[in-house]
């Protein structure tokens, strides 16, 4: 069973290179309308979007992300946890704003921002745009906060570039869904490496256009290479969130 929306979602590919054509304000307004309708925990709307248009800020985000194509994208959006607004409302009414700093609020805001980002991508792709999620903001979360002068009780969740696609990458193979869709509990495999052998073989046929002349490694080798006990600056994100005033 399918429809136009599902067909669009099943064709999802990361687009990193865009044409020089602008994305009109009318299209962006429509996308923002979709974002505003995203489900929100307790209806408190603890998330927001910052569009970055200043060239100097874009340069700084490109430097943090260490991916040059970020600079060239027509649209850059940053999705954030925003508990600052509701903390101010509490203060304006003589209430303890510490209630907006709780772990629950941070998790709600982070989840809401992720849901909002996904809704934006579906809307953008339905209009023919391409999109790229940018987890690279967490290469230096504190640097992003400083660059954008984010106040206490806000936190960057994920960046995103949007534009008209200037590349046609192949679909990236995904793990068979029976390994990830479970029923009534977690279903462990007796040996994951053996269970994923066919998927590993399929992954090695995929070309990532970031390095178009080189096939990617198998999934299990990616796990071994990327999940290490070496220091990872991403591990500092919770410390940065605490520095932003969240009680986590």
From TrEMBL:
- Which keywords does UniProt give here? Flavoprotein, FMN, NADP, Oxidoreductase
Which SUPFAM superfamilies has this protein been placed in? FMN-dependent nitroreductase-like
Q: Extract the InterPro entries matched here.
A: Flavin_OxRdtase_Frp, Nitroreductase, Nitroreductase-like
List, for all copies, the residue spans of the domain called Nitroreductase.
12-164
What is an example of a Pfam family matching this protein? Nitroreductase
The entry assigns this protein to a family as follows: Belongs to the flavin oxidoreductase frp family.
Entry protein name = Nitroreductase
Protein source organism: Corynebacterium guangdongense
């Amino acid at each position: 069973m399918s429809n136009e929306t599902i067909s669009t979602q099943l064709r999802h590919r990361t687009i990193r290179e865009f044409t020089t054509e602008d994305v009109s304000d009318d299209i962006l307004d429509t996308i923002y309308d979709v974002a505003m309708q995203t489900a929100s925990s307790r209806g408190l709307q603890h998330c927001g979007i910052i569009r970055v248009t200043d060239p100097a800020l874009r340069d700084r985000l490109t430097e943090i992300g260490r991916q040059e194509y970020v600079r060239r994208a027509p649209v850059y959006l940053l999705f954030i946890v925003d508990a600052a607004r509701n903390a101010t409302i509490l203060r304006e009414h003589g209430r303890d704003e510490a209630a907006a700093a709780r772990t629950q609020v941070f998790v709600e805001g982070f989840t809401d921002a992720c849901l909002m980002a996904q809704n934006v991508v579906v809307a953008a792709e339905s209009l023919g745009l391409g999109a790229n999620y940018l987890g690279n903001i967490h290469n230096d979360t504190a640097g992003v906060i400083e660059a954008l002068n984010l106040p206490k009780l806000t936190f960057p969740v994920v960046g995103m570039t949007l534009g008209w696609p200037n590349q046609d990458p192949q679909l990236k193979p995904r793990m068979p869904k029976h390994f990830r869709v479970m029923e009534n509990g977690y279903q462990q495999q007796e040996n994951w490496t053996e269970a994923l052998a066919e998927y590993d073989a399929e992954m090695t046929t995929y070309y990532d256009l970031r390095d178009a002349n080189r096939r990617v490694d198998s999934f299990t080798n990616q796990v071994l290479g990327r999940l290490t006990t070496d220091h990872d600056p991403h591990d500092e994100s919770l410390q940065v969130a605490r520095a932003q005033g969240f009680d986590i």
